[in-house]
Every structure is written in C-alpha cells, then in structure tokens.
Design a protein that fits this description.
This protein has 188 residues and is an alpha+beta fold. 22% of the residues lie in helices and 26% in strands.
C-alpha cells in the first residue's frame, strides 16, 4: 500500500483529491481506508434509510465532469397505507464534484427501504436528498421507475443542480442536457 507522500507510477505527485494524511490507497490512488462496508460482511440496515449509510470516496478527477449512473433493479419498499410491497428500479445519476458514492454502501442504502413505508414520490425525493447530502454533487437525478400496481405506471424523476460559478454551471447543464438525449445509456 502506498501513502499520500508516494508518487504515482508516472512519477507525478498524488492528486488533489488525496489530501487525507496517511490514508491508504489502491494502486490507482483511490482512498479506501475510511470505507466501513467494502470488503467486509455488512449487516442490512434495519433502522431505515439515511445518508449516514452512504459512504463516499474522493473523486480523483474533480476538474473533469463525468456522469455516474447507478441502477438498482431490486428496489422494494412498503406502501404507507396498506403495507403492501412496492417494486421499482431506482436509477441515480450524478456528476461528482469532490466525492463519489461507494457502490456497496449504495446497495445497503437501497436495502434499508425494504421495510420502510413511504409513497413513491417521497422515496424518490428522499434518495435525491440523501445523495446530495452525502456527496454534494454538481448534479444529481434520481429516477424511480415503479412496477405497475392496479394497472397504473408511476415513474418519479427528481433532480438538483449545485450552485456553482456561471461557467461551470453552463458546462454541467450542457452535459446533463446531452446525457438526457442519449438513447440506451443504461445498457451494457
């Protein structure tokens, strides 16, 4: 394992995203020492969802906007009135600023909804709030694509843009606009 003071194979100093003193890194300089769930057997959250479940790692490319899309097709929650299960695919898309979500913690966060009673609109907006609180991304959109119940499709879309300087905001909005126009962007 290397530390912050080591240089990359290319001979350059560690990236600005690696400011934590003595933090362990992978060979690619990703900080991993603070992550609690990755690589260990983790219990499923029983108390319900919250931003504290989401773990983040530093974005090694904060000056390069890129989109991260995470689809979770096994989402379940409970109707707040009947207690009946709701099923969905939850897709979270974001442009990281300084932090990226660690995918295992995201999976555990999604599992925290299994016994949680809430309307689909509330769930989608809550996921957006929690992702925004945990990551402070430049942009984040959550799509709740709920399985039909009673012959009715319900899809909920919620998004938020971070307030940044005008030039960066324009670049982010143009990237998001282009991303939304792309077809088949969630297929392998």
């Amino acid at each position: 394992m290397t530390t912050k003071n080591d240089t990359r194979a290319s001979g350059s100093a560690s990236s600005p995203a690696s400011d934590s003193a003595n933090a362990p890194y992978t060979r690619s300089q990703d900080q991993t020492g603070h992550l609690r769930t990755l690589g260990v057997k983790a219990d499923y959250p029983q108390a319900g969802p919250g931003p504290h479940i989401l773990e983040a790692f530093p974005n090694n490319f904060p000056d390069r906007p890129y989109i991260v899309s995470i689809g979770f097709p096994e989402f379940t929650s409970l109707c707040p009135v009947t207690g009946q299960p709701d099923f969905a695919t939850i897709v979270t898309e974001y442009i990281p600023d300084r932090l990226c979500v660690e995918s295992k913690s995201f999976k555990l966060y999604m599992f925290a909804y299994r016994n949680h009673q809430s309307f689909m609109e509330t769930i989608t907006n809550t996921v957006l709030d929690h992702m925004t609180e945990a990551l402070d991304p430049l942009w984040c959109r959550v799509k709740g694509l709920f399985t039909p119940r009673g012959g009715t499709h319900l899809h909920v879309f919620a998004e938020r843009f971070k307030q940044v300087e005008a030039e960066r905001a324009t670049m982010v909005r143009e990237m998001v606009s282009e991303w939304k126009r792309e077809s088949g962007r969630h297929t392998a």
